[in-house]
Every structure is written in structure tokens, then in C-alpha cells.
Design a protein that fits this description.
Layout: E1 3-7, E2 10-12, E3 18-25, E4 32-39, E5 46-51, E6 58-60, E7 68-73, E8 78-83, E9 92-100, E10 106-108, E11 112-116
């Protein structure tokens, strides 16, 4: 059974930091690119950052460049998103997503709420 367990969300003041984690179960983690997406109320889900299966290629949305860092630990089947210098506009539900390298399978995590407010 495929399952993703996300953690690390919460309430933080502007300028603060959070670290999100997404642990994957039931897939061969090293065979998937991993991404973090977010969805704010009334808006479409958007890509935040993405990392290839071996970690050799990383892409960031322009609105997080220099503030967020995506990483992965294939030994722990986990992908991380370090978020620094958080802004109120970063408030959203953050989702991890797995995309199979060879094949068409994709999976979403359940989401974790991030709220940036004073």
C-alpha cells in the first residue's frame, strides 16, 4: 500500500522557518522524482520545488528561489523542504508528489498546512 506521511507544517511568524518532511511507504523511492506543491485558498495548486530521483537536478519556482531548499534522503525514503524567510503569501497547504522515472505512476501526499502570520 502506497502511503505518504507529511509533517512539519504549522504556524510561524513572518521571517521564520519551517522544515517539511514527506516519508514514502510502498514505493521504490529511488525510482521517483519528488516534488513539493502548494495550494492556497481559492488558488490552483502550484509547483514549489522538484528534485530528481538521484538528486542531481533541482528546480524551484521563482517565488521561492533563495528561500526554500528541497533535498532527499533515499536511505530514509524521505524528501524535505526547508523553508526560510517565510512570508504571509507562503500560507498554503503543502503537498508532496512522487513521479515515477519509468512509467506513468504518480502519487500525492495528504498535505500539511503552513500558515505564516503575526
Amino acid at each position: 500500500q502506497v502511503q505518504f506521511v507529511e509533517s512539519g507544517g504549522g504556524l510561524v511568524q513572518p521571517g521564520g522557518s519551517l522544515r517539511l518532511s514527506c516519508a514514502a511507504f510502498g514505493i521504490t523511492f529511488s525510482g521517483y522524482a519528488m516534488g513539493w506543491y502548494r495550494q492556497a485558498p481559492g488558488k490552483e495548486r502550484e509547483l514549489v520545488a522538484r528534485i530528481t530521483s538521484g538528486g542531481g537536478r533541482i528546480n524551484y519556482a521563482d517565488f521561492v528561489k533563495g528561500r526554500f531548499t528541497i533535498s532527499r534522503d533515499n536511505a530514509k525514503n524521505t524528501v524535505y523542504l526547508q523553508m526560510n524567510s517565510l512570508k504571509p503569501e507562503d500560507t498554503a497547504v503543502y503537498y508532496c508528489r512522487a513521479d515515477q522515472n519509468v512509467g506513468v505512476r504518480s502519487y500525492w501526499g495528504q498535505g500539511t498546512q503552513v500558515t505564516v502570520s503575526s
